[in-house]
Design goal:
The protein is of the alpha+beta class. Helices cover about 15% and strands about 40% of the residues. The protein has a six-stranded mixed β-sheet, with no helix packed on it. Strands 6-5-7 form a three-stranded mixed β-sheet, covered by helices on one side. The radius of gyration is 19 Å and the shape is globular. The chain starts with a helix and ends with a strand.
């Protein structure tokens, strides 16, 4: 179990069983388009909407990554630092705040250049935690829109503007609860 969990983390994906009993891989893409959207939800589809921002404590704007494990010794041959300088400046983050040291046991820097595995690892987690994101909780009351599952991408078409933003962002369902005639979902901004 520990090896599989580490493989998911370093491989930047999550595996779960979907509601129809089949396996499903979930990952955050670098960009989304209309073809990725499972449903667009409006005022007639939802109730009890709660809009918030991800906590500042979740921000991860700098990462020191050790990788390329030495085959005989308990050490790593390489270490690279990555930083989201824009977010650090925008949020006035101090030098030692919102940082993390990470050791990759399974991912190696196998491709040279900017598409390396380690750079990809940083880019993936920076896209998720590198800035404050909008989070949405609501109940879906329209039975025609209750076939959603964790990992599905939704958009909202609402009159309200969350924190002054438009609803053009894409949201991934991160949690859901089904009841008779109603489904509660939690979503997080992605892309």
């Amino acid at each position: 179990q520990k090896v599989l969990d580490r493989l998911q983390k370093e491989g930047c994906f999550i595996f779960l069983w979907n509601t129809s009993g089949g396996g499903k891989y979930i990952f955050v893409k670098s960009s989304y388009s209309a073809s990725d959207v499972s449903e667009t939800l409006d005022e007639n589809d939802i109730s009890n909407i709660n809009i918030s921002k991800s906590p500042f404590s979740e921000l991860l704007t700098k990462m020191d990554i050790s990788y390329e494990r030495h085959p005989a010794e308990d050490k790593y041959n390489k270490k690279t630092s990555f930083e989201n300088s824009t977010a650090r400046t925008n949020w006035n983050i101090g030098a030692k705040e919102n940082t993390k040291s990470e050791t990759l046991k399974m991912v190696h820097d196998t491709v040279s250049g900017s598409d390396s595995d380690v750079t990809g690892y940083w880019n993936y987690y920076n896209a998720i935690f590198g800035d404050v994101k909008i989070q949405v909780k609501c109940n879906i009351v329209n039975p025609a829109k209750m076939d959603l599952d964790v990992g599905d991408i939704v958009q909202f078409d609402l009159d309200t503007k969350p924190f002054g933003y438009s609803w053009t962002q894409y949201y991934m369902i991160t949690s859901l609860t089904r009841k008779i005639g109603e489904m509660s979902i939690e979503c997080r901004e992605v892309g």
